[in-house]
Write a structure and sequence with these properties.
The two termini are 22 Å apart. By secondary structure, this protein is mostly helical. α2 packs antiparallel against α3 and α3 packs antiparallel against α6.
Length: 200
């Protein structure tokens, strides 16, 4: 379990950092807030995977009960990070809606963001394969995060295409919606994991 979990976490750290750099480049070049928020989300995913790595490295030193609690705590912290990301999106979306700035669009930017959606879908598939080997709540949380990220990035891609054409601060509105969706989903999972930890 330890080896597969460590490999999954290291893979997640490297892949998410690469996605962060790609999205950061597009967000700076295009002045897109939603893509910038999405880039930050990937950077926080690096932190989540680092947390998962630490947990898996410690699992071999714990007994079965302690191991389950450690995985539960790690899953709780990952969901907490995701909830914080959603709140951050919401705040920045509100700022952009109130103070809009022009967004630059190009097919190159759209292609890069489209490629990151495919990358996240592949990451979810790879995580799922790891999870078949170890059946870990931590890995399941990373799978769900990847699937959520696919939807988020698809939404930001739509914003990148639409905003320059309509001349309206839809980018900020998109970030507001993304923030609300992520926060609601993550807070629900945080409460669920917290109940598990308390009951255990």
């Amino acid at each position: 379990m330890k080896k597969a979990g460590v490999l999954a976490a290291v893979f997640g750290i490297c892949a998410n950092f690469g996605l962060f750099l790609a999205k950061l480049y597009v967000s700076i070049s295009s002045s897109s807030l939603s893509i910038y928020c999405d880039a930050v989300n990937n950077l926080l995913d690096v932190g989540s995977c680092a947390l998962a790595l630490l947990a898996f490295l410690l699992l071999s030193r714990l007994n079965d009960r302690q191991s389950l609690r450690a995985q539960g705590l790690c899953t709780f912290l990952i969901e907490l990070i995701i909830a914080g990301t959603g709140i951050y999106f919401f705040y920045n979306g509100l700022q952009r809606a109130l103070y809009p700035i022009p967004i630059s669009y190009s097919y190159k930017y759209a292609a890069v963001i489209g490629a990151t959606i495919i990358a996240k879908a592949l990451m979810a598939l790879i995580y799922s394969r790891f999870n078949k080997r170890i059946d870990s709540g931590i890995i399941r949380a990373l799978v769900l995060d990847c699937l959520l990220d696919c939807g988020i990035t698809a939404f930001t891609l739509i914003g990148l295409i639409v905003v320059p054409k309509i001349g309206f601060a839809a980018d900020g509105i998109f970030a507001l919606v993304l923030g609300a969706i992520i926060s609601a989903s993550a807070i629900k999972d945080v409460i669920k994991e917290a109940k598990k930890l308390i009951n255990d």
